[in-house]
Amino acid sequence: MLTNLNCKNAKNETPGKGVSFALNEYRKKTIDSIHYAIELEIPSQKIQAIEGKQLITFNLKSLDSALVMDFSTDSAHVHAVKSAGKEISYDFINEHIVIKTDQLVKGKNEIEIIFTAGDLSLNRNEEYLYTLFVPDRASTCFPLFDQPNLKASYSLTLKTPKHWEAVSNGILKEKTSTGDQNIYHFEKTKPISSYLFAFAVGKFFKTEKIVDNRAMTMYYRETDSVKVKRNSDEVFNLHAKSLTWLEDYTAIKYPFGKFDFVLIPSFQYGGMEHPGSIFYNESSLFLDENAPINRKLARASVIAHESAHMWFGDLVTMDWFNDVWLKEVFANFMAAKIVHPSFPEINHDLRFLLAHYPGAYEVDRSSGTNPILQKLGNLKNAGTLYGGIIYQKAPIVMRQLEKKIGENLMRESLREYLKSFSFSNAKWDDLIGIIDNKSPEDITTWSNVWVKTPGMPEYEFVGNKDEIQIQQKKDSLSGRIWQQPVVTIWKEMFAQGSIRINLNNKPQNVRKPDLPAMVFPNSNGQGYGYFKMDSVSEDYFLKNYNSAKDTMLIDPVFRGAMLVNIWEGFLRGDGAAPEHFISILIDILPKENNALISDNLLGNLQTTWWTFLTESQRSQYQEKIEKVLWTLLETTTDKGMKNSYFRVFKNIAMTDDGLSKVESLWNEKLKVKDLILSEDDKITLAYELILKQKGDGKAIFEKQLNDTKNPDRKSRMKFVIPALSPDQNVRDAFFESLKRPENREHEAWVLEALGYLHHPLRAKNANKYLKPSLDLLQEVQLTGDIFFPQRWLSATFSGHSDLESANIASSFLKANPDYPYYLKNKILQSTDMLDRAVKLKK
């Protein structure tokens, strides 16, 4: 009834901006068999408009309402709308082209539109451009039905400047040249959703390779030929391994014919899964020499993630963007499986724990958390659904589901799901229905808690001389039970053991102890929630950290799980005070020999240092922390960890000795064995010297700019440097410039600059930027890509930790009680650490 009512409303109401759920449902019922033949002429000058024309063919099942097409730009961009070669009348309403029924026929229609392309999602640079249409941005470029459940085929023709390369989803059918232009004709694609259509053109290098009888082409901008050669084989091989694994797991051959990928400087995401033409952040795949193991894992994971999307997201796509998590969880879930064969030396349980749980908790512990499956009334808000819950929590929940029903049943269910909905659309409940039909477990009830409600469970241990019990604390939703198994290790004076408990909301026995007894909850790191540790158990773990005298302490998964517990306790005020906690981190860091855990500790150390310590407390520990980090940097034999210690050292260094080391590394007067500094490293060293006013900042910048060979990095440096200026007026002018959308186009540049503008050393002088930054948030959401609003907020608030900053954020929300729900949550998530810092500093 609700669907019918929505469809009726969509027929009778003037379309608003974006794509409402009602319009989505109506068009899904009345339109199919869509094909877009698009031709775009791309000039050599960035400031020149891109002219286009397209022929849209579709089947119309009903003539009871006007046809609504999406074109999210100015009406002046539409030059003509034709049918059968003749111009027809249309209305342009709220960024929609509306064609009345008297211009249409029931059945096959062909509409030709001549237009000027919108620039919002074209990411234009002087020497290249690339599209990014997720979630609803295709309509900012050209007219179409911009919703995921109206899949269409695309035939693209691109006219580009001479010597420019072009790549798109379809196979290149023909390339011709005329005058100063190249003309690229791409074959018709398989049916894909509009957000997956893509193209990139520009001055790209190109490498073609056949791996395991699979032809692949890589496009890139990197000018360091040594770096390219060092990474290329591994990049191709990781793709080939991922695709072969996925074909075997799904029992479906790669669905989209050709396979290309484009590496783009400062790309907004790690990758984007356009079928036949994946886009990546260039620095994610072209790693520096001696890259730490985490960076290599991250590269393998992002490649596996985007490859998995070819099946999960591209072949089968969510019906509406409220289920966007569905494609992301499968991609992450599969990526975790895929990377195992490529990294046999890695403890993958530990890797999964540290890659997902801290990030998920960061959102779930905040008052701005959200369920995995969220509500969405209009596609224009779809970008706000993305975040840590989708990318970190959802894979944890999916792993729990697999353990609940078994790997074989999971694989069997996913194969049926992919086969049933190939080149079509599906919902989470469609998969749950398949699983429920095969499993004796009540998966629907389990899903309703884990997928459809927000937050995380909290557990506490209660005990006396007779017994120790674990129980789920009551939360805001009455009667909610977070069903999950949890393993807990108990330790007494002369005995030790573990117990697996299927947790619910009732107290359950862990052990009848001979006191003194200790309890180490969630010891295998697979349970999800806050497991409060008692002080005796926590002290034992820290004082005997990684000691060979106790077998549980040398298990890296156990250490990782306990460190996650302790970090959660610290942030909630249940652990050590900040000045004591930093001492703990400094003490245990040299005792850790696992690179994954060391990187996690270094992350917590930097957060504690800059966010939770006062300036006087930092001064107290400054010499000690620099000495520990420098010693680890010089003595570690792990070349990857050497780079990790280097990056933290340069971030924290403040003493004359520390900054002299930073300066000597930058000007190459100091060499550390096996520490190889990349061009990016040199740039960030220069930034640290300028920020901390070690030497002549202008001279440092000019030297680094001259030494930097890559033109894209040069452009980025010129953008960022005003944010580092010691002159407050220059920084003020830079912030003012960000109020203009055209100055926020390079989002990665903006975020880097904001990090320096709001650096803790400058935080007091940057408080005046906080309220204007919040005022800009809605515009940032409309003009930026999906992750930009959250990252804008995080970069803005991450350097602040005082009461004045917290009050600015809370006052803003109080003054705007009707502020959009999704963006309010982003603010609450981004200021959660700030609020905790204020409380802990008290």
Explained architecture:
The chain is an alpha+beta fold. Among the domains are: 1-203, tricorn interacting facor f3 domain (Immunoglobulin-like, Sandwich), CATH 2.60.40.1730; 316-450, Neutral Protease Domain 2 (Neutral Protease, domain 2, Orthogonal Bundle), CATH 1.10.390.10; 758-842. It is built from 30 helices and 28 strands. Strands 5-4-8-2-1-10-13-12 form an 8-stranded mixed beta sheet. The longest helix is centred in the N-terminal third of the chain and has 26 residues, at 225-250. The protein is globular. Mean pLDDT is 94; it is low at 1-9.
Radius of gyration equals: 28 Å
In CATH, the topology of the domain at 1-203 is named: Immunoglobulin-like
Helix count equals 30
CATH class term of the domain at 1-203: Mainly Beta
| Poorly predicted runs of 5 or more residues | 1-9
CATH superfamily of the domain at 1-203: tricorn interacting facor f3 domain
Assigned CATH architecture of the domain at 1-203: Sandwich
Proportion of residues in β-strands? 15-25%
Share of helical residues: 40-55%
Q: Please, what is the average pLDDT? A: 94
Q: Could you tell me the number of beta strands?
A: 28
Largest sheet: 8 strands, mixed
Tell me the span between the first and last alpha carbons.
55 Å
Form type: globular
Keywords: Aminopeptidase, Hydrolase, Metal-binding, Metalloprotease, Protease, Zinc
GO molecular function: alanyl aminopeptidase activity; metalloaminopeptidase activity; peptide binding; zinc ion binding
EC number: 3.4.11.2
Pfam families: Peptidase_M1, Peptidase_M1_N
